[in-house]
Amino acid sequence: MILAARLVMFRMKFLAAALYGFFAAVVAHADVLAFTDGDRVQGTFVRREGGKIIFQSLRFGNLSVSEADAKVEMATQSTPPPVTTLPMSGGAATEEEELLARFRKTIERGIVRWWEPWQGRIAVSTDVVHDSKQRSVFVVEARAKREWAKDEVRIEPRYEYREDQGVVTTDFARVLGYWRHDFNGRFFTLYRPTFEREKVNGRRFRPFPYMLLQQQTGVGVHILKGQNRELRVGVAENFFNVWALNDETTFSENVESIFLEAEFRLPWRIAIIQRGVRYYSLRTGDQGWENESELTKKLTESLSLGFRYEYRQNNPDVRVTDYERVRLFFGYDF
């Protein structure tokens, strides 16, 4: 019993030290935006652009400040505060406390420092309808983004579950990746992999249980590029691979496409995101279309309300279902 109690206490101390180190590191290793009037804001320096400093603050989101009004103090320019052990005992530090201190120090210098520049959102959407039929839908998704001087990386996992009259009609999971590299000037290249999995076997094999891997590689040009507006167009080659889950059939196809991406940040903390893709097969002449439009309003620094419209038609594998969705979601921004 004594050994079990000591083990439980050690685990609780270990967890407390880890959480303490996680949140302490965000402040201890943050960059500082120092204004000429004496105000100081902690966060992460992003880049300098057009005489302005782009800074991701911990409390106020993205800031764009004139270089004449502020300067950046990088975290590496200052000595971080010494790591102290948590007062877990009244006497000298024990071996357990020294282990916890080393673990917390590792978190501060590694994991937390790596995660700080990421921005993202966790969102949910659900509805339950009782009329002539009983329907229920639940959707949970996340979005994380990180920017460098010439690169942007995103990852967007999503899960959707739907029942109609007590019968499962949708059990859908998707993970979308995105990497864009900007060259000098207006040109860029991108790689956009997408993985989908649908477990439900519907009538007439539409939808049917499948796994889909789509990879898009392309090049494009920036039509507009600024702090509050971006517009990009380009051409891409798309590689589709589909595996049926109810048998051993597979499908592969290469399709050409043109795409458009737009991001606009408006007053009152409103953002509009648009991405459209037009597929065209030079080999068969078949055409397809995908589109996603999103309108988001930040209610507070951490909470947002959004409206999204999604449309897909004529995937190269005709068994993969087309869809048209309109969804309202609530999100937590970080």
Tell me what the structure shows.
The protein is mainly beta and 334 residues long. The protein has three domains: 1-29 and 95-113, no CATH class; 30-79, SH3 type barrels; 119-333, Lipocalin, CATH 2.40.128.130. Helix content is 14%, strand content 58%. It has helices at residues 2-28, 95-109, 111-115, and strands spanning 31-35, 40-49, 52-57, 61-66, 70-73, 119-130, 134-147, 151-164, 167-182, 187-198, 210-225, 229-244, 250-266, 270-280, 287-298, 303-313, 323-333. The strands form two sheets. A twelve-stranded antiparallel barrel has the order 6-7-8-9-10-11-12-13-14-15-16-17. The chain has a five-stranded antiparallel beta sheet with strand order 4-3-2-1-5, with no helix packed on it. A hairpin with a 3-residue loop joins β11 (210-225) and β12 (229-244). α1 packs parallel to α2 (95-109). The model is unreliable at 77-91 (pLDDT under 50).
Question: How would you summarize what this structure contains?
Answer:
This protein is mainly β. The protein is 14% helix and 58% strand.
Q: Largest sheet at a glance?
A: 12 strands, antiparallel, barrel
Structural class: mainly beta
CATH superfamily of the largest domain: Autotransporter beta-domain
Shape: globular
How much helix is in the residues?
A: 10-25%
Strand content: over 45%
Radius of gyration, in angstroms, nearest whole number: 25 Å
Provide the low-confidence segments as ranges. 77-91
What is the β-strand count? Answer: 17
